[in-house]
Write a structure and sequence with these properties.
With about 525 residues, the protein is mostly beta strands. It is about 10% helix and about 30% strand. The chain has seven helices and 28 strands. It comes from Lucilia cuprina (Green bottle fly).
Length: about 525
């Protein structure tokens, strides 16, 4: 574990302390009692979000902790992951000495799957946070589950005076010869940052959170990157990532320092996206089997839009695509839309009578920008053609803010492109809070929209309208948006892309088609 270097000095405090400052530690002491002295061994399944990390850095191997925050992501400390060429991620473990333990799995992640905060400072440990992306999504079970993050939009608590839980396989004392093999945990008190700031001679910032060690409970070597978890309502939330401790020892009563989880949400998006998706990526055949291409006959020529296959009879798209069409050629199973003889690709003609535009679609505002295309015969599913699920009819519904979702289509790859791309492309983008999109679009956004931001200039463009915004929900993709609008001056200027929010229309879809998920 890295520590802030401190000299041990006597701190003479002459400042008068308000009475209430003494109350919070007392509350913690009353809750903690003596039962947590030296911590407690965890039981299997007790802390299913706990992660162990074996890190290859140069010629040495290190140990850190981490937290599983989704089926794809582990969050840890920046000082753990910085410079790592390879990490063995251990999930579902209680005894790390036993790789054959029931419930335990080990996954190798290479440097390309590691994202350290771009402003991480090794000297001060500021922005001490990193993400590890697993190569495949893990399946949740009794031994492996994610821990929730605090809400993106708050309100955010300081947690001062509240109980939280630390856990890990770190040393149980400064004199211990190595880390412990059995996972341990302890309940600790979060203290006001000003106390921690005194102890660490002004080195604490608002982006730290500290716990005090009145009962000599603290994190130690090997616990870095592990969770500080707060129990709220019926679940734990991750409020801190173990960052630093006192340089002279972890059992001398000094505070432990953590990186707060406020930094995680934006980093998740950047970590997922990386630079690899600039200009998107070409899809492989069979990769996005729910993707639909639409050639639209609108009198004076053909236009092109995207769509999503939601059943063997129905395609969902944007109303603006099909409002005035005479007929639509629906392309299914395609990767190369210029090759109608491509393996797996089929084309079906649908007349205007097979199209249902939302009855309250507003061309001026793009409200209710949703439509259904009914195929004349049911399609047969295969490796190239499959439906995408809808969100559940009865909810609960999420905003998806700060979640990763996938856009796909044959739209232009830049505003200067002469036309569509022939090969299907996709990009992973960040869903952003509607209020940000509303600022960009001068108040024109409603609750039935969903937006994605383009920090890395990823957006839908001409020809992508009507196409899917898909969210990976554990073991399948769900359709959460339909491409609706973009910035009028260009689709690669960093403006948000706007979508019709599918959760706002699952009842309408059910009434028109009978399709629903419960």
């Amino acid at each position: 574990m890295k520590y802030l270097y401190l000299q041990l000095i006597a701190l003479g405090l002459c400042t008068a302390v308000a009475t209430n400052d003494l109350v919070q530690p007392l509350i913690c002491l009353e809750e903690l009692g003596l039962r947590i002295v030296n911590g407690s061994p965890a039981q299997p399944k007790q802390i299913p979000y706990q992660v162990g990390l074996i890190l290859d850095i140069g010629e040495d191997t290190y140990w850190c902790g981490g937290s599983l925050i989704s089926n794809y992501y582990v969050v840890t400390a920046g000082h753990c992951a910085k410079g790592a060429s390879k990490i063995i991620v251990i999930l579902g473990a209680n005894d790390i000495d036993n790789p054959y333990e029931v419930g335990q799995i080990r996954i190798t992640v290479y440097a390309a799957g590691i994202t350290v905060h771009e402003n991480y400072d090794e000297a001060t440990l500021k922005n001490d946070i990193a993400l590890i992306r697993l190569p495949e999504p893990v399946v949740y079970n009794d031994y492996i589950k994610n821990i929730k993050l605090p809400k993106l939009l708050g309100p955010h608590d300081s947690y001062a005076g509240k109980m939280a839980q630390i856990s890990g396989w770190g040393k149980t004392s400064s004199l211990a010869s190595g880390i412990t093999n059995i996972l341990r945990y302890a309940d600790v008190c979060v203290q006001p940052n000003f106390i921690c700031d005194i102890e660490y001679l002004g080195a604490i910032t608002a982006s730290n959170i500290c716990t005090h060690s009145i009962l000599l409970k603290a994190t130690c070597n090997g616990d870095s990157g592990g969770p500080l978890a707060y129990y709220v309502d019926d679940h734990y939330e991750l409020i801190g990532i173990v960052s630093f401790g006192f340089v002279l020892g972890c059992d001398l009563g000094w505070s432990s320092g953590f990186t707060p989880d406020d930094l995680v949400q934006p980093l998740i998006c950047l970590g997922e996206l990386g630079l690899r998706i600039i200009n998107g990526s070409p899809a492989q055949p069979k990769q996005i089997p729910y993707q639909v291409g639409l050639i639209l006959d609108i009198g004076e020529g053909d236009n092109f839009c995207g769509g999503a296959l939601i059943s063997n009879y129905y395609v969902l798209t944007a109303a603006r695509c099909v409002k005035y069409v005479n007929q639509v050629i629906v392309i299914l199973g395609a990767n190369d839309i210029t090759n109608s003889n491509e393996v797996g690709q089929i084309r079906i003609t649908v007349l205007a009578s097979g199209i249902t535009v939302h009855e309250y679609y507003n061309e001026a505002t793009h409200e209710n920008d949703i439509a259904l295309i009914q195929l004349p015969e049911p399609v047969v599913y295969n490796d190239y053609i499959k439906n995408i699920q809808l969100p559940k009819l009865l909810g609960p519904y999420y905003s998806y803010a700060a979640d990763i979702a996938r856009i796909s289509g044959w739209g232009k790859t830049s505003i200067l492109s002469p036309g569509l791309t022939n090969i299907l492309r996709y990009a992973d983008v960040c869903v952003q809070p509607n209020f940000i999109c509303e600022i960009e679009y001068l108040g024109a956004i409603t609750a039935s929209n969903i937006c994605t931001h383009s920090l890395l200039l990823k957006a839908t463009c001409d020809g992508d309208t009507g196409g899917p915004l898909a969210y990976f929900a554990g073991d399948h993709y769900e359709l959460i948006g339909i491409a609706s609008f973009d910035f009028i001056l260009g689709c690669e200027l960093g403006w948000s892309s706007g979508f019709t929010r599918v959760t706002s229309f699952v009842e309408w879809i059910y009434l028109k088609t009978g399709i629903a998920y419960f």
